[in-house]
């Protein structure tokens, strides 16, 4: 579990910060109101905290000594203080604190909460630093690592393109546009041929002031531009703002491709994304990929007799059952109403029949309970092979077989005819 060391001697701020920490999912908090209490907390046998949030002015340590204590224990530290002193701020940033935030407005507390939320995600986010100057490349990398990002480095356009192709976790590139051979413009154009700004953001960098080059870089598809010698805080803010844009686009795309009730992919995703992916599967293994359509038997009666709230519970539970049925490369979607679809990959017809027959039995013998009510449900299944990677033809064939299953009776599986 994530543990936070909070060192704050003002009770008002302590309560406000603890509430914010809970809001961002950090529930294990060690609170200290002095340097001595912080030292005692760190000596407890519960393990080191993975984050410290500290004030600089404490009753027994008025000059920021608490930062030295955290640094000595290798604890990533955020300073949250009312002390506005440029020299102190510069000194603390040089010590390697994650950030130096002033308690000067209600927005400061929100900023700290957002920062902590991002820090939890950042170790999974790759950032590529492209610069042919080794000293500057390392200096920029050290700044980026302060916010716990996973940093990749490249000294040339070819090296950077190779790194991008091999590491799908890279979401942002910091690219110098003055490079020997293929310059930053060549890199940018090459990236934009295969990846959009919503997939990989690019921030241009230069130590030379040239507005024409900056404009050109932005027109070629860069998201932002910074001076190489800007403050570490500005660089990290630009990084977080550009990543926030990418996250928002990802979230909107995800909402557009997901069913809001069950969380499964929706019909739009199946027809827009999966159809193209399936095309690439066509070949020797055509007889090992299948499309199965599921339709709940008597679902209208469930809604009529028990209400839509119970009906939603049934759909959610059934979606969970389908997710459990699927394997790593399978695709599960809700097509609408009580109709679902699963793309089953790489299995023989007998293996497919065995899996779906077992699924029918599991569904029938596992009652759904909701608000004191309990019912058993059944589902009909129609299956068709994905021949020639043609999703639309498979949907037509599976739909006919699903109709045949429904006419035969509840809980039937039809795979031929």
From TrEMBL:
Gene3D superfamilies: 3.30.70.270, 3.40.50.2300. SUPFAM superfamilies: CheY-like (SSF52172), Nucleotide cyclase (SSF55073). GO terms for biological process: cell adhesion involved in single-species biofilm formation; negative regulation of bacterial-type flagellum-dependent cell motility; phosphorelay signal transduction system. It catalyses: 2 GTP = 3',3'-c-di-GMP + 2 diphosphate. Residues 287-417 form the GGDEF domain. PROSITE patterns: GGDEF, RESPONSE_REGULATORY. Keywords: Phosphoprotein. GO terms for cellular component: plasma membrane. It holds the Pfam family Response_reg. Signal peptide: none annotated. Residues 3-118, 126-243 form the Response regulatory domain. CDD domains: GGDEF. The modification 4-aspartylphosphate is found at residues 55, 176. GO terms for molecular function: diguanylate cyclase activity. SMART domains: GGDEF (SM00267), REC (SM00448). Its EC number is 2.7.7.65. InterPro entries: CheY-like_superfamily (IPR011006), Diguanylate_Cyclase (IPR050469), GGDEF_dom (IPR000160), Nucleotide_cyclase (IPR029787), Rev_trsase/Diguanyl_cyclase (IPR043128), Sig_transdc_resp-reg_receiver (IPR001789). The keyword Kinase does not apply. PANTHER family: DIGUANYLATE CYCLASE DGCM-RELATED, REGULATORY COMPONENTS OF SENSORY TRANSDUCTION SYSTEM. This is diguanylate cyclase. It comes from Roseibium album. The gene is pleD_3.
